[in-house]
Design goal:
- The complex is a heterodimer of chains A (327) and B (275).
- With 327 residues, chain A is of the alpha/beta class.
- Chain A has helices at 57-64, 82-90, 108-118, 123-136, 152-163, 182-197, 209-215, 233-240, 255-263, 286-295, 310-318, 322-325, and strands at 6-7, 17-28, 31-42, 46-50, 72-77, 93-96, 170-174, 201-206, 218-223, 226-231, 244-249, 271-274, 279-283, 302-307.
- In chain A, a hairpin with a 4-residue loop joins strand 12 (271-274) and strand 13.
- Chain B has 275 residues and is mainly α.
- Chain B is built from ten helices and one strand.
- The chains are: A alpha/beta (327), B mainly alpha (275).
- The A-B interface holds A 2, 5-8, 13, 16, 59, 62, 65, 67-69, 78-79, 86-88, 90-93, 95, 97, 99-103, 105-106, 110, 114-122, 124-126, 129, 165-167, 169 and B 1-9, 13-17, 21, 25-26, 28-29, 32-33, 36-37, 105, 107-109, 111-119, 273-275.
């Protein structure tokens, strides 16, 4: 089974740029949701937009999905202009919206076949493809059930299957695992990883750092409508934060007390970041930091050493934790 | 880069569908949904006209002097209005919650269609085709056939045009309902349409008594009502009576409402689906 469109000679061009944006902007009245972003997405890669709610990532995705017209800059998808060739571009995209937008009154199977009709796929081919995709997302036994009877995780998998009905060259996923329980999340990730492995280009937005780290080859971090960093997850971590982070908690000490305590930690790591409930010490060697704390007779109530993550990158770049910004 | 698809679609499918093709593709959703609810429409199409005929047409009709209703039996008088009223009732089902829900996270079918090659106008046309063509020509036809068993058609085969009149009523109202249901922000206000539009239209349209019997100050409401224009046309078809105005005036009024409504609905859906 292949989900990938191929070139006429049968060989995909992995260097082909599927999406390119230059100084891309979108305003709603006085509010500038996207403030001039530049990026390129290549065939076969998994590209992520990372940011808190309101960062502008969903607006950017809508422009790529050709349902929102940019108000400035330039955007090309598959080398075409979304303004004049939106329908032709959308015919080559797969979209998994955050709210699924499945038809609850229809069966699982009907959802796929009806959706296939929007792309002009003939009934017989649509039915075959639907059966194949239900197998892929492990929903074959539920084919005749109404969508409203499915769990949240199953509905999300069905939305992913639906997005593949037209053999898209690029699949756009908006917050693919938001609202799912951990088990359902892992199952969705596993299916997305399979897709990626089969060479389908993926574009996703997320505010889950672990999701971005697991799935994305490259990503951009957005904040207040701008791209503030870009690169592979590893590059971003290497560039913007140290290898390790030590989390220090001091009993019930909170914001102001922790800010004061942070001053006493100067020099135990590369950077000290007081948060409302803990202090983060960015360091290249957690053991050295532990030794430095002991030498100063600083005794936190708990110490957790871990490797730096994209969460830390975001925190360093914006001064805010993503989780705090979630609605 | 030219692409070869592996799912039966051709390269030609990867362009914007034409107006009719786009509307048809959007319409297929309504058709699929109808397959799940068609049995519910049996009540509207079969049982309701029977109940109206037995209780009002025959029951109340026994007390009505035919001279008061243009020389027809009362059952003959109300039959054409019933056919058109069913069309209005169906719009209440098809063009309020299903339209409003199309933009919401609890429905979202318009949002789903928008992510495909379909344009907002395709989506509008598909839904309107269902409400103004498919529904009247299936369900109103069933109503008309059921009423035939009551022997209420004094005209000949022309009675079939009553269904066309019902479709015209649908066409005149459906786009305006679409516009309204697309504009309303709060779900709880959706029922207003039944209180302030469907109900008055049903009352002031000469379905159950001649509209000319109403007080002069209410006559403008009668003239404004699409159901009155449709009922006049339908009665001319089923009973051979002369409509209140020349047929082309009734048709022109309904057509004008349909066209202006379509432009209003198009403007609104484009606003809603172009983010």
């Amino acid at each position: 089974m292949s989900y990938r469109a191929s070139t006429l000679d049968g060989m995909p061009d992995d260097n082909e740029i599927l999406v390119s944006a230059a100084d891309l902007r979108k305003s709603y009245g006085d509010h500038e949701a996207v403030r001039g972003v530049d990026f390129e997405i290549r065939r076969g890669e998994a590209f992520g937009f990372l940011g808190a709610n309101g960062a502008g990532k969903s607006t950017t995705m809508r422009m790529i999905g050709c349902v929102s017209q940019p108000t400035g800059g330039s955007l090309q998808v598959f080398g075409r202009d979304p303004h004049t060739q939106g329908a032709a571009i959308r015919a080559r995209l797969g979209v998994v919206p955050q709210d699924n937008t499945l038809d609850g009154m229809l069966t699982v199977f009907e959802n796929l076949v009806v959706y296939a009709g929007y792309f002009g796929i003939k009934k017989k081919a649509a039915r075959e493809k639907a059966a194949e995709l239900l197998e892929f997302v492990q929903l074959t036994p539920r084919a005749k059930d109404q969508v409203s009877d499915l769990s949240g995780g199953m509905q999300r998998r069905l939305a992913i299957a639906r997005s593949l009905i037209n053999d898209p060259e690029l699949v756009i996923l908006d917050e693919p695992t938001t609202g799912l329980d951990p088990q359902a999340r892992h199952l969705v990730w596993e299916r997305l990883f399979q897709l990626k492995h089969r060479g389908v280009s993926i574009l996703l937005t997320t505010h889950y750092m672990d999701e971005a780290e697991q799935l994305c080859d490259r990503l951009v971090v957005m904040d207040e409508g701008r791209i503030i960093a870009s690169g592979s997850p590893r590059e971003l971590i290497d560039t913007h934060v140290t290898k390790e982070v030590v989390e220090l908690r001091f009993g019930t000490a909170h914001t102001a007390e922790l800010a004061a305590l942070a001053h006493t930690l100067d020099g135990v790591g590369a950077q000290i970041e007081p948060l409302p409930d803990k202090i983060l010490v960015y360091t290249d060697d957690a053991d050295d930091t532990g030794a430095a704390l002991e030498a100063r007779d600083i005794r936190p109530s708990s110490v957790l050493a871990r490797r730096a993550t994209l969460e830390d990158v975001f925190l360093r770049l914006t001064g805010r934790a993503l989780v705090e910004d979630e609605a | 880069m030219t692409t070869v698809l592996e799912n039966g679609a051709t390269a030609a499918d990867r362009t914007a569908p034409g107006t009719l093709t786009g509307a048809w593709r959007a319409f297929t959703l309504q058709l699929a949904l109808y397959r799940h609810v068609w049995h519910g429409t049996v009540f509207t199409s079969v049982l309701l006209p029977v109940l109206y005929m037995v209780s009002i047409g025959i029951g109340v009709g026994a007390y009505i002097d035919p001279a008061a209703v243009g020389g027809l039996t009362y059952a003959e008088f109300i039959a054409p209005g019933l056919i058109c009223s069913v069309a209005v009732m169906m719009l209440g089902n098809d063009m309020v919650f299903p339209v409003h829900g199309g933009y919401q996270d609890w429905g979202g079918h318009y949002l789903a269609q928008r992510a495909t090659p379909l344009s907002p106008v395709d989506i509008l046309n598909g839904h309107l085709a269902y409400a103004t063509v498919f529904r009247p020509f299936t369900n109103c036809t069933i109503v008309a056939v059921v009423l035939a068993f009551f022997g209420v058609y004094t005209g000949s085969w022309r009675a079939a045009f009553a269904v066309v009149a019902a479709a015209l009523v649908s066409a005149s109202l459906a786009p305006w309902l679409h516009f309204w249901a697309s504009s309303i922000k709060n779900d709880s206000n959706l029922n207003m349409i039944f209180r302030f539009a469907v109900m008055p239209i049903s009352l002031f349209s000469g379905v159950f008594f001649p509209a000319s019997d109403m007080p002069a100050f209410l006559q403008p409401l009668v003239w404004a009502s699409p159901l009155w224009h449709g009922t006049e046309l339908a009665r001319a078809a089923t009973a051979g009576t002369a409509p209140a105005l020349p047929p082309y005036v009734h048709i022109a009024y309904l057509a004008a409402l349909a066209v202006t409504g379509w432009f209003a609905a198009r403007w609104r859906i484009q606003k809603r689906l172009n983010f």
